Amino acid sequence: MTTALDRLLGRITMYRLTLVLLLVLTALALTLSFAGLLAFTPRELGGTLAAAVGGTFIGTRLLALILRLRPHADSSLLTGLILFFVMFPSDTAAGLGGILVAGPAAGASKCVRAVRGRHVFNPAGAGAAVATLLGVGAAGWWVANVY
């Protein structure tokens, strides 16, 4: 069993494996929300997911285009999904606006603060910190809380 698992995992990159597992957690969160077992509504989770992933992906692409860098789609999606779990879900314009600030800020931290191609800061953490410090969003690992 261990050999088969090692063989399977050896064929998948770390980015792809993490992306798949975050997508599984996202699907689980949405399922629990639809079942009424989470404190957040499907609308709040859907809006937050769209704002976090969309903002990060588009922000990273735009900045990479401006700086003439090659964007990494998997990395942008990972950062967006982590932001989805870090920023408090919302369906209000103000709440989603804060998340839309965090996404591009996270993408920018990948390009602006990199040494020899490596991130100096955790991009999702940097984006969440920017939104929180600007007072437009609130960060908290909501997925780990028991409701």
Annotation keywords:
6 helices, two-stranded antiparallel ribbon, 147 residues, mainly alpha, flat
Describe this structure in words.
The protein is mainly alpha-helical and 147 residues long. The chain contains 6 helices and 2 strands. Strands 1-2 form a two-stranded antiparallel sheet. β1 and β2 form a beta hairpin.
In short:
The chain has 147 residues and is mostly helical.
Proportion in β-strands: under 5%
Total number of β-strand segments?
2
Give the end-to-end Cα distance, rounded to a whole number of Å.
36 Å
Indicate the low-confidence ranges by residue numbers: none
Portion of residues within helices: 55-70%
Structural class: mainly alpha
Radius of gyration: 16 Å
Number of separate helices: 6
Compute the number of structural domains: 1
The biggest sheet, with number of strands, parallel, antiparallel or mixed sense and barrel status, is: 2 strands, antiparallel
Shape summary: flat
Mean pLDDT, to the nearest integer, reads 89
